[in-house]
Design brief:
Arc Repressor Mutant, subunit A, two-stranded parallel sheet, binds glutamic acid
């Protein structure tokens, strides 16, 4: 077969020569150990937490080695394209401080010399390389209808495992040039398949930077390289793009691991050297029954990065939480360095913890509480307001008008050596502090204590004193003593039956009357902020 003739026949319109293309993508000039990484999402309109997890690894590997991190949009599957999707992805990366060094905005700027950064704009490049492979007898046209790329490969693989025979070789590899010419004349569409050399038995080994040595059966599938719209499959684009664009480390989900042998054969056919790989584990979550499921957009709102924004999480908390999932030594480092910026942590994208990452909201909340507890009241106010401007617009006027009061509320038990750790997201603020903005709707009262409760509050009206914390507490104690509550804790512990309770019991009654809750931050601070009139009103109403 005259492969050169076949290539010209199939790609008569493609004038791009791969040697010319390669001149446009010179080797990047970087320091010896500098790594080039990329984040390569499909434009599906949302950013999955698992994708962000990978981008975080990509960014850190590139930045910590003095390399380059770029964004490539894998939009060859035109059906899945959501308009504005790449702006969403770039927006999230930027907000989280992972701005790529190179990227492209659809219909807008391109930053970087290795673009286009949209695969759909690289069609001629893929065709040039497919043409090269055909001209060397390493690929061939296939006129069969089913040309869906990945699903095709998967289906064949499954079939092969089921039957235990090698059925991977595509019948179209045996077409004669005359038959091909005839079909082209009839206007039949074709895809381009790799002519695999694999026998379905031989094995290959490779070193995954995260998982260590992996042994797999070498590829034997005549996989599709170009679909019948002549757009590349993921596999072919991966080989062409990551080579031309100079990627040195590919960080991708472990669902791609089974395709590695195919990628190896494609790289070999093209005469390209493969980059290093880190196949990252998928993130799971336990359900109420204790079974774990893959974090999915359908089942778990937190699979979508926008969730954290809407809920008003601090970005640093999300980042710290994920680093903690990636590097198991992060937690100890954080304990030893509570105030250091994350940039000082020796983040190692090559040392991903072997444990399956399980998304744990409680852990995230704890990390977030810790971070927010260190903020000044002023900073909290700023964060709360900017969250409200996006997601709680009905509260913005109030927040702006009563900035001073809101800041004081935020300052209760804050800016102290042991600050309170109750807020973990801004959307909880108005619920958590509802009693600072209106009379409580419910009261946590134990039924059997109701009489004592009322007695204390009726009496307290005469003891209300807010001039200083000491004066306030002295009066609470005086009243407690008068009503038969212990003021001396030792005496109370030694002889609890002789008292109705102790000062803490009395404080709890006052707290419930004012806030509706048994637990709250510093009661005196709350009372002074609400003011004497409001407190008397609430007590009267309660009684
Ligand atoms: N577009 C692919 C995906 O979203 C990229 C995988 C890779 O990073 O190579 O899964």
């Amino acid at each position: 077969m005259d492969y050169k003739k076949l290539a010209d026949l199939l790609f008569s319109d493609n004038k791009s020569d791969f040697t010319e293309i390669e001149k446009k993508y010179p080797k990047r000039i970087l320091a010896k150990d500098a790594e080039v990484t990329r984040f390569a999402p499909s434009p599906t309109g949302f950013m999955h937490l698992g994708g962000f997890f990978q981008a975080l690894i990509d960014f850190n590997i590139a930045k910590r080695s003095g390399g380059v991190f770029y964004l490539r949009i894998e939009d060859t599957d035109q059906k899945r394209e959501v308009s504005g999707a790449s702006a969403i992805i770039l927006g999230i990366l930027t907000e989280y401080g992972l701005l790529p060094d190179e990227y492209q905005l659809k219909g807008g700027v391109t930053v970087g010399d290795y673009g286009p950064y949209y695969q759909s704009e690289r069609k001629e490049i893929y065709k040039a390389y497919a043409k090269k492979l055909v001209s060397e007898g390493k690929a061939f046209p296939c006129f069969c209808k089913k040309t869906e790329g990945l699903s095709d490969v998967k289906e064949k693989r499954e079939k092969k495992f089921a039957v235990g025979v090698n059925e991977d070789k595509d019948p179209c590899r045996n077409l004669t040039i005359e038959q091909i010419e005839q079909m082209l004349k009839e206007g039949k569409k074709f895809s381009i398949r790799l002519k695999s050399n694999g026998d379905g038995v031989s094995k290959i080994k490779f070193e995954d930077c995260g998982k260590g040595e992996v042994e797999m059966v070498a590829n034997s599938i005549d996989a599709i390289l170009l679909k019948n719209d002549l757009m590349p499959t993921y596999h072919f684009a991966h080989a062409v793009d990551d080579t031309l664009m100079g990627t040195t480390v590919v960080v991708r989900g472990e669902e791609w691991l089974p395709s590695f042998p195919l990628h190896k054969e494609i790289f070999d056919a093209l005469g390209f050297k493969q980059p290093k790989y880190i196949h990252t584990p998928l993130i799971y979550k336990f359900n109420e029954k204790g079974n774990r499921n893959k974090l999915s957009k359908r089942k778990h709102p937190e699979a979508d990065m926008r969730f954290f924004d809407k809920e008003g999480y601090e970005k640093q908390a999300v980042v710290e939480y994920l680093i903690n999932l990636i590097n198991s030594n992060f937690e100890n480092w954080r304990k030893a360095n509570p105030d250091s910026p994350i940039s000082e942590f020796a983040f190692n994208g090559f040392k991903i913890t072997a444990n399956t990452p399980i998304f744990d909201m409680i852990k995230l909340n704890d990390i977030s509480k810790e971070i927010i507890s260190k903020f000044s009241a002023e900073r909290c106010y700023g964060e709360l307001l900017s969250w409200a401007r996006e997601y709680s617009t009905e509260n913005v006027d109030y927040l702006v008008k009563d900035k001073e009061y809101v800041t004081k509320v935020l300052n209760i038990d804050r800016e102290k050596p042991k600050p309170r750790k109750d807020i973990y997201k801004w959307s909880m603020f108005f619920d958590l502090f509802d009693y600072m903005f209106g009379v409580p709707h419910t009261y946590e009262i134990d039924e059997q204590k109701k009489t004592d409760f009322c007695e204390v509050l009726k009496t307290y009206k005469d003891y209300l004193e807010l001039s200083s914390k000491d004066a306030w507490f002295d009066n609470v104690k005086k009243m407690a003593e008068k009503l038969g509550y212990a003021v001396d804790n030792k005496a109370y512990k030694a002889n609890p039956e002789s008292f109705k309770g102790n000062v803490a019991t009395v404080c709890e009654y006052i707290r419930v009357a004012i806030t509706g809750r048994k637990n709250s931050p510093d009661l005196y601070e709350i009372m002074t902020l609400l003011g004497e009139k409001e407190i008397s009103d609430r007590i009267s109403q309660f009684v």
